[in-house]
């Protein structure tokens, strides 16, 4: 069984932080941090949580650190369909509905789609049935050759953008499931990467997608919850697609 010391050292090295820097942030000493990492000292529960906070360890992995140190997990993991989550679900549903007719969806930490509004249907038009079976995965649906990819006009720009985003999340979270997802979707065939700026949208890269003989342009925005105290909530992400030009606005208005 892995002890807490090597795990903490791994997170510290992932954040490119020295023992001295971490000790100053956590109001400790470099000597004590060294003793914890080598197993010569057992950190208190409060110290584990303090170090995890300064190392920006995701909530799920904070529980793993506590278990490795011999303590009970501090954060529950409540299913989204649990009655205790009713207020949260209602708020999310209201947000998704209010965003119509523009697409919006809710994903978990591995890009599985948990909820979506009616606007998402225009993105899923023509997607192969096997990709729409639960659990729907947003990255798989987007980049699979039988998914949305053939309709994305600037796939050479959008695909590298998504893969780079996923790489950053793997670096930040150290998730094996995300790493496996990256290996899968990065192996799908795709055009050569294009990194040139879009002169029509210099402020953000749009996704330009063909729909019913016209091209719609969307800018994606992802929102998460501040100070989550539950594993499930900490991994929720709400992605909304904002029209990037007047033509898209006109096309989607009833």
TrEMBL record:
Gene3D superfamilies: 3.30.450.180, lambda repressor-like DNA-binding domains (1.10.260.40). The lineage of its organism: Bacteria, Bacillati, Actinomycetota, Actinomycetes, Kitasatosporales. InterPro entries: Cro/C1-type_HTH (IPR001387), Lambda_DNA-bd_dom_sf (IPR010982), MLTR_LBD (IPR041413). GO terms for molecular function: DNA binding. PANTHER family: BLL4672 PROTEIN-RELATED (PTHR35010), BLL5781 PROTEIN (PTHR35010:SF4). Residues 8-62 form the HTH cro/C1-type domain. It comes from the Bacteria. CDD domains: HTH_XRE. This is Helix-turn-helix domain-containing protein.
